[in-house]
Amino acid sequence: MTPAALMPALHLMQAGPLEIFALPFMWRALLTVAILAVAAGVVGLFISFRELEFVSDGLVHSVFPGLVAGSLIGGSAGLLPGALVAAILAAVLFTVIEHRGGVEADAAIAVVLTGLFSLGVVLVSRQEGYVSELTELLFGRLLTVTETQLWQILLVAVVAIAIVGCTWRAQLFRSFDAAGAEAAGFRVLRADLALAVAVALLVVAGVQALGVLMVIALLTVPMAASRLLTRGFALLIPVAVLLPLAAGIAGLWISFAWSTSLGATVSPGAVVVLLLVGGYVIAALLRVGATAVRRQRGRALRRGRATESGRSAGSARSDGLEQGAA
């Protein structure tokens, strides 16, 4: 390779953060992560409160055959419509199954998600060169998000946030007291369907960039880490937004640096998710450490009070003996 051909690569290796994120594919990827972080922070609040992580995982896997069918019918332009149809149908189905209740509900969701995911694998394997297509669908294409896809992701994310915002009171009431919410006049089934559709839309928005296997982390990890880091309700969503945003900036930077300096091909979506999980581990360790410190302080305070009480009792006995001797 000639020195002239090496100059662009050397320039990229020496570029600063502003220059790197000024590249079109990098700022589109960063903006995609920012949009998804905001939407995941809002929708993820009620996923965490309602403990719907398993249902969310089912929705993620159920989107896969829709992605494949949309790709087969309309190419890359058909990914969003196919995923949207599959996600909404799965959301309604899972909500109905959940309302049936019982142990068999979880089993039914597990059967549906594995069946639909297997159907997607069978459909994609019918194409020539399906291995690369399967890899892209599973692990995403964060650095190849086009402006059209970016607008699609923004639109779907805004609709998901709007659905949660319009049903905010019902969702909040339902999360803590389902029977009380119904007694107060809220339609529980409608609230559950609204949340399921919002989660489905967020899955559709994220799956194009992060892939089927990575988007579940965006739905669950930020809010789980946020609940470990703060006890204030007002801070849950801001912290849950900042965590994936920070992981996105660092993950894109690391994947770019590795690809330019080491020549290693690394999935930026996977790096982002790995950093997000690392943030959760740090939050869990901080929570454990803070709990241990509080317990130690509590024990020390109780020992101090017991010592003070013993001293007071001993002093009272001494005074009594002196008065008796007198």
Give the helix/strand layout.
Layout: H1 3-14, H2 17-21, H3 24-49, H4 53-74, H5 79-100, H6 103-124, H7 130-139, H8 147-166, H9 168-176, H10 178-183, H11 188-210, H12 212-229, H13 233-262, H14 268-325
Helix pairs in contact: 3-8, 3-11, 3-12, 3-13, 4-5, 4-6, 4-11, 4-12, 5-6, 5-11, 8-11, 11-12, 12-13, 12-14, 13-14
What do the pLDDT scores average to?
80
User: How many beta strands in the DSSP annotation?
Assistant: 0
The SS-based structural class is mainly alpha
Helical content class = over 70%
Alpha-carbon distance between the two ends: 108 Å
Number of contiguous helices = 14
What kind of sheet is the major sheet?
Answer: none
Low-confidence segments: 1-12
What would the principal axes of the Cα set say about the shape? Answer: globular
Strand content range: under 5%
Specify Rg, calculated over alpha carbons.
26 Å
Order of SSEs: HHHHHHHHHHHHHH
